[in-house]
Amino acid sequence: MRKLKLDELNRATVDEFKAQDKLPVAVVLDNVRSMHNIGSIFRTSDGFAVEQICLCGITAQPPHREIEKTALGATQSINWTYFETPLQAVETLRADGYKIIAIEQAENSIMLNTFAPAANAKYALIFGNEVNGVSDEVMQQIDACIEIPQFGTKHSFNIVVSAGIVLWDFFAKLNLK
Fold first, then answer.
1. pLDDT tens digit string along 80-121?
2. Upper half-sphere CA count for residue 27 (Cβ side, 13 Å)
3. How many Å apart are CA 59 and CA 79, to the nearest integer?
4. Which SS3 state, helix, strand or coil, does residue 9 take?
5. 151: which of 82, 126, 162, 166 lies 20 to 30 Å off by Cα?
6. What is the pTM of this model?
7. Cα separation of 59 and 29, whole Å?
8. Pairing outcome for strands 98-103 and 50-56
């Protein structure tokens, strides 16, 4: 088996990416403190062609070299907006027709493997702070909560790992039928 060379990957240009169909998902970062995590989520969001990222509260904004270190240019391809509070993002996205979904461990959460996204819906997926998770005030405004099943001793994933798992799941369920 031979690894593909960069020129064989058929990568879209930024302009081609901006024009292509997107996964009907907005990623909402609720007070994410690590710029490396922010950059990695930009890169992962680019990989799954999400519609947009909403940066909220203390979440840093591009341009910043610590974000770019892991984003590898994805801050140029992904549309993003900054909101002073995650509640402002939730209100704006709800008004734009998005279903508001927290990715969190909570009472009455829906396990990711059983969640079936509707083909004609748009989703705002909220990923919380590395220590405190999705803020309590946002949890009071959500339409649903998705939990990633876990089977080890830690019962927590890094936010970037969580975003990768959930975005892949949504991409696969909506596009790979």
1. 999 999 999 999 999 999 999 999 999 999 999 999 999 999
2. 33
3. 16
4. coil
5. 126
6. 0.97
7. 7
8. unpaired
3-state secondary structure of 1: coil
Provide the token pair at 151. Answer: 């089977």
What does the alpha-carbon distance between residue 57 and residue 84 come to, in Å, rounded to a whole number? 5
* CB distance 87 to 54 below 8 Å: no
Q: Tokens 């909402």: give the residue.
A: 28
The DSSP bridge pattern shows strands 50-56 and 23-30 to be: parallel
Task: Report how far residue 22's alpha carbon sits from residue 157's, in angstroms, rounded to the nearest whole number.
Answer: 26
Amino acid at 102: A
Which residues, 6 or more positions from 7, have their beta carbon under 8 angstroms from its beta carbon? none
Q: What is the mean pLDDT of the chain?
A: 97
Residue 8 tokens, joined: 């064989």
DSSP 169: H
Model pLDDT, residue 175: 96
Q: Any idea which residue has 């998902």 for tokens?
A: 25
**Rounded Cα–Cα distance for residues 19 and 14 (Å):** 9
Contact indicator for 103, 150 with CB cutoff of 8 Å: no
Which residues touch 176 (CB under 8 Å, ≥6 apart)? Answer: none
Tens digits of per-residue pLDDT, 21-48? 999 999 999 999 999 999 999 999 999 9
DSSP category for residue 114? G
